[in-house]
Every structure is written in C-alpha cells, then in structure tokens.
From TrEMBL:
Family as reported in the entry's similarity comment: Belongs to the HypD family.
Species assigned in the record: Levilinea saccharolytica
Assigned keywords, A-Z: Iron, Metal-binding
Origin organism lineage: Bacteria, Bacillati, Chloroflexota, Anaerolineae, Anaerolineales
PANTHER family (UniProt xref): HYDROGENASE MATURATION FACTOR HYPD (PTHR30149:SF0), HYDROGENASE PROTEIN ASSEMBLY PROTEIN HYPD (PTHR30149)
Record keyword Metal-binding present: yes
InterPro entries named in the record: Hyd_form_HypD, HypD_1, HypD_2_sf
GO biological processes: protein maturation
GO molecular function, one term: iron ion binding
Protein name per its UniProtKB record: Hydrogenase formation protein HupD
C-alpha cells in the first residue's frame, strides 16, 4: 500500500499537471488504449484537471466491450444446451446478445456460473465429470497466459469435459486499424501497461515509426497517468515519435518471456471480429490445431452463427476515439447500466459506463 500510495500523491500529481500546462502550446488528441485507464482518469478527475489543449479519447482496450456480438450469441447457444456448465467472468453475464444476455439465460435455468479464474472452471470440470464445462476465454494479451494454462492443466488431468470459447484480441493490430483509418484523430497513445507487462513493447516500436505517433507505456495510478501524458505531450511538442516506458516498475522491453511461451504453445494468430469495429485481420488468437479438441466452437457446432450489430449503439465510434459517450443519443436514456444497448455500458472498463458512473454526461 505504501508503494502504491506514492503514485497517488496529490502534490506530485498537481506538479505533473502543471508541467504539462507549461509544456503544451497547441491542441493535441491522445488515446488511452485501456478501459482501466479510462475509468482511472474519470474516477480521479484527471480528465478535468488537464489543460484544455489536451483531449483524451478512449480506445478499444476493454476486452468485454470488443467481444463481438456473434461470440456472445455463440456463448448463449452453448450455455442453453443441456448438461453444459458455462463459466465466465461476471461482466460477461450482462453483455447483450442479439436477443438476451447470459444473466437472463441463467434466470431461466441454464447453468451459467461466475468464476474469478479459468482454473476455477477446470476445478468445476473435475467435480462434474457428467457435464461439459466451458470457459469463456475473453481478453487481451493480459489474460491469455492464464487461459492457456487452464487448457494445459485440463490436458494434464486428462479432462475430456473442458473446453474454451476463445475470444482473445491483441492490441497492436487494433492500433494499426485506428491509425490507418482516414478518420483517425489520434496523435499520441497511452499504451496499456498490463498488456505490456506480458508482451513487452517491442511490437509498438515499428507502429510509432510507421505512423510517426509517439507512445508512452502507462500504468493506472494518477501519477502513472500524468507521467504518461507528460511524456507523450513532450514528444508531440518536439516532433518526435518514440515509445517511452512510464511504467518501468512493471514493464520491460521484452516482457514476460515465460508467459509468452505459454501463449505460443496454445494459441496462434487469427482474424478477429471486434464489436462495433468489425473484422481486423490477424488481430486475435485462436487455439492451435493440436488443441482443437478443446475448442468449444467446434465441440458444440456454433461456428456458423453470424449476427448484425445494433444500429442505435455507437460503441464502435467510441472505441475508435471518433466520438464520446454523451454524443450518443441513447446515452443515459435508452442505454443505461440497467438497460444497456452495448457492451461499453455494461463492462466495468467500458467508456460509456465510466461516463455514466462519474457524471460526465455533458
């Protein structure tokens, strides 16, 4: 707690903001990739303390938010089958599919359980050999090692009733998609510290060079965020485009090589459909062919399911930094945390949920 408290020191945070104020000379638009950073910025009020020249927009770094509608519908189709125990993190239960969510399905009798780790799902599979147990393996690079480890453990235990519904996505291809768009507004990035703790930040170096966009690997405490913003603004003002590490206590250039090895053993790159954004080539991970027996899509024959996004929800534009939640006509009206139209209002890391929770409705 003492170590964390140092990064919440109000005097140091205000000092950093004053340094940003002295440095900036023109408007700049920065994107924080991670939804956890979005909530931290709004929760602490940092977004309102920054000088008006700095505009923060919110990226596709919420794993619940970018899980495609078709994956949600596949999850619902699997969970509705008899003798299936469908396991998931709590946020996913309320993400709307085409017609309902997992929470509603559970209320009608389906065996949908909240777990806090994929290893909990493996334990459930051991305790229920007469049921098929499925874990909804969502997330960015951060959660991939644990999800891969659960499959390896199930294999080591000889469990035939455990499978993964995989919805893993990766940050660098999403950054390419955003920066390569003709409508891109982003001039600098705050890279997601937790993702970089696993993968390092080597993959970001060629992106910064190709698009001439500066980046700072940034943590989640107030001082982390202020330092990341300051480093990025300094680069913008100087006309440089490097990747700087403002989260060195948790992130190295190489990342966690052991975790990367586990990921490579179980997963391989694949195309992925992002909710509200659409397909991005080679932007996700799927199971390697040798682990196909643990693929829930194949086991339950749901790969054919396709869906259509809601025409009302503008989550895709929000996740690309083109609009902010209050610009959606449904925000706070048809779309609230109790009656969400899209995942960005459901997830604990969603931008719409953050704006609603912390009163940024202007």
């Amino acid at each position: 707690m003492q170590f964390t408290a140092e990064f919440r020191d109000a005097a140091l945070v205000h000092k950093g903001i004053e340094e940003i104020r002295r440095t900036v000379t023109r408007p700049w638009t920065l994107m924080e990739i991670c939804g956890g950073q979005t909530h931290a910025l709004l929760n602490t009020g940092l977004d309102e303390m920054l000088p008006p020249e700095i505009e923060l927009v919110h990226g596709p770094g919420c794993p619940v938010c970018v899980t495609s509608l078709e994956l949600i519908d596949k999850a619902l189709a699997i969970a509705a089958q008899p003798n299936v125990i469908f396991t998931s993190y709590g946020d996913m239960l309320r993400v709307p599919g085409s017609h309902e969510d997992l929470f509603s399905l559970r209320a009608r009798g389906a065996q949908v359980r909240v777990v806090y780790s994929p290893l909990d799902a493996v334990r459930i599979a051991r305790e229920n050999p007469d049921h098929q147990v499925v874990f909804f393996a969502i997330g960015f690079e951060t959660t991939a090692p644990a999800n891969a480890a659960s499959l390896l453990q199930a294999h080591a235990l000889g469990l035939k009733n455990y499978s993964l519904l995989v919805s893993h996505v990766c940050v660098p291809p999403a950054m390419h998609a955003i920066l390569g768009s003709p409508t891109c507004r982003v001039q600098g990035f705050l890279a997601a510290g937790h993702v970089c703790a696993v993968m390092g930040y080597q993959e970001y170096l060629p992106i910064a060079e190709q698009y001439r966009v500066p980046m700072s690997v940034t943590g989640f405490e107030p001082l982390d965020l202020v330092q990341g913003i300051l480093l990025t603004v300094r680069q913008l003002e100087a006309g440089t485009h490097e990747v700087q590490n403002a989260y060195s206590r948790a992130v190295t250039l190489q990342g966690n090589l052991g975790a990367q090895a586990i990921i490579s053993r179980v997963f391989q790159p694949c195309d992925r459909n992002w909710r509200g954004i659409g397909p991005i080539p080679m932007s996700g991970w799927g199971l390697r062919p040798e682990w196909a027996a643990y693929d829930a899509e194949q086991r339950f024959s749901v790969a054919h399911i396709q869906t259509q996004e809601s025409p009302i929800c503008i989550a895709g534009q929000i996740l690309q930094g083109l609009k902010k939640p209050p610009q959606c006509p449904a925000f706070g009206q048809q779309c609230t945390p109790e009656t969400p139209l899209g995942a960005t209002m459901v997830s604990s890391e969603g931008a719409c949920a953050a704006y609603y929770r912390y009163g940024r409705s202007r």
